[in-house]
Amino acid sequence: MLSISMRKDGVLAVRLNRPDVRNAFNTELIHELRSCFEDVNDNADCRALLLSGEGKSFSAGADIDWMKRQGELSREENIRSALEMAGMFQAIYSCRKPVLAAIHGAALGGGTGLAAVADIAITEDTTLFGFTEVRLGILPAVISPYVVEKIGTAKARALFITGSRFDGREAERIGLVFKSVPEGGLQEEVEKQIAELCLAAPRASEEAKTLAQFLSPRPPEGDLQATAERIADIRRTAEAKEGLSAFLDKRKPAWIEQSGG
Questions:
Q1: Tens digit of pLDDT for each residue in 17-43?
Q2: For a designed S-S bond to 15, which of 3, 160, 230, 231 qualifies (C-beta 3.0 to 4.6 A apart)?
Q3: CA 85, CA 67: separation in Å to the nearest integer?
Q4: What are φ and ψ of residue 123, in 5° steps?
């Protein structure tokens, strides 16, 4: 699920490795990501982490088939499942080491959420982003605190409601990513940012990260339970089941058919 290797410069390279499903999350990948980012906190040899994805896309977010199965669970089991995913995002966000993300191809749903929890997200102008959950009948629930912190309530509200897709240039403009570069320039820019990071004192860099998070007006960790309950409740609804089934069946969901779309 993950390919992990330590680079000579002390950067731990963490690569999502489910290219056949565009690096979508399932139970195993969620667990591996959370463990990786929690375990590295006390690793004195690690300077920073670089998160990337294998294949054509960075991440399509939650595995739709997996998400549909979660909706069939009891509410209590559903909440536990949602808390696992919420804990993964929180582990990345609160990791004491600086976290960079190299985002290519597409980062949709929870993939866009990974951009929000990274400290320094770099992408290409042509990369597609989007909080597309509402088009499946669900919500961008567990990623929402991090997104709102990064891009603000007004922009998040509009993007959450519509599920519209946007490119890397727009992602930089609204503050979701640190920088967007022309197609083909991603790796060069990532290495440039790593070189900049390595000029900083390791302890000071970690403390600077926690300082910025301390000053955040609404720390995301306080929202874990509430957002987990929201996604657990909505993915058990008939609308969510229809939206997820329609995606897997490669057809339009009923609400589009009914509106004549």
A1: 999 999 999 999 999 999 999 999 999
A2: 3
A3: 11
A4: -140, 180
